[in-house]
Amino acid sequence: MEKTQFKINGKRIYERADELGLCSSPGLGVTRLPFTPESLRCEALIEQWMKQAGMKVWKDGVNNIIGRYEGKDPNAPVLLIGSHLDTVIEGGKYDGMLGVLTGIEVVQTLFDQGLTLNHPIEVVGFCDEEGVRFHSTFLGSRALVGTFTDEDLQRTDDAGITLEAALINAGADPSSYPLAKRNREDVLGYLELHIEQGPVLEKENEPVGVVSGIAGVTRFSFEVSGKAGHAGTVPGRLRQDALAGASEIILFIESVMKKYDPLVATVGKLTVLPGASNVIPGFVKGTLDIRDIDESRKESAINEIMKESREIASGRGIQVKFEEVMKAPPTYCSEEFTSITEQSIKELGGRPIKLISGAGHDAMAMAELTDVAMLFVRCKEGLSHHPDEACTEEDITAGAKVLLSVVLKIANK
Ligand SMILES: [Zn+2]
């Protein structure tokens, strides 16, 4: 990516990410939960930078911060660019913030060049995507989509504070949240730049990739029941070891994952009972998380796992039971926006790598409202939700240039 026809200031984005990173509660990395003093400090900086870029700035009823850069026709549908400003506990400086900062930089570039596009642009810093404080999903973007509800306001954090009280305390007027909702016809689309949170771009040696969609997720809890017994007295041939059976099932799940690549399947949690060094495990409880952009491929994989697990269990004289506990459909990015993004990456000298996001993003919620597109920027070792999360200034610059190019193509039609 060597062409420099756009005057993106990547150094400014990089330094601003450092500055926002200081808006954190004490401890490792960045911890910025929503509606806290540190999140208000972060929003004050965002407000200042949005204003410098010629935007009109306001906050809505759930404390999303929005900057609007007027278009030639103020009544034309608006192009939204956004991401989230909250973090996980001991997270990094880029997950979320980078999408907001690059959006502001794109507008700053237009403003500096005195360019007004046909469509207005709004950069949105969503209040809460990670959902750490209120055990929620996409609080900020759901307010724009219109799926935020009165029940959401009654969610409580671990200290028993309701979301409503936290919003009031942060200076917001939660009763006005319905006004945040956008009408489909008023929105041209939604663009989100985000760090990849995975290792593919690093492996492909490309700074920027285009996201074709966000994988759907199915989660199961499972139980394997065998027979506990004395670790010294029950001969191997007479055992009904639940953990040995679960292990065989888990290895089979891994083989299914490899067969159906890019599907991913993870057993992330196991409880072994009774859980003593001198007792044969009689019972295992676990979780299975399966993600894929292709629903029918995911269903095939699930069917294979269920069938083979039962066979493994019956061969061992044990029982296995799976229960589906959560299912979220995949989100597909707009084909038009995706091909525009690929075009922009090529024009800027890159190779458009298509990626599937295995993690959830505000774009998932926004896809219920409008066409969405996502760009991923390479991050060091694919690391995220970690204090060592890192991006280079060069990669950030490359990402912002692609974003600007996409904005020019979409908002200037
Ligand atoms: Zn994020």
UniProtKB/TrEMBL annotation:
PROSITE patterns: ARGE_DAPE_CPG2_1 (PS00758)
Entry-linked Pfam families: M20_dimer, Peptidase_M20
UniProt: Zn(2+) 1 binding residues: 84, 95, 194
Binding site for Zn(2+) 2: 95, 130, 385
Swiss-Prot/TrEMBL cofactor(s): Zn(2+); Mn(2+)
Amino-acid positions noted as binding allantoate in the UniProt annotation, renumbered to this chain: 219, 278, 291
InterPro entries named in the record: Amidase_Cbmase, ArgE/DapE_CS, Bact_exopeptidase_dim_dom, Peptidase_M20, Peptidase_M20_dimer
GO molecular function, one term: metal ion binding
Coiled coil ranges: none
SUPFAM superfamilies in the record: Bacterial exopeptidase dimerisation domain, Zn-dependent exopeptidases
Cofactor: binding details: Binds 2 Zn(2+) ions per subunit.
Xref: Gene3D superfamilies: 3.30.70.360, Zn peptidases
Quaternary organization: Homodimer.
Family to which the UniProt record says this protein belongs: Belongs to the peptidase M20 family.
Name of protein: Allantoate deiminase
Species name: Mesobacillus foraminis
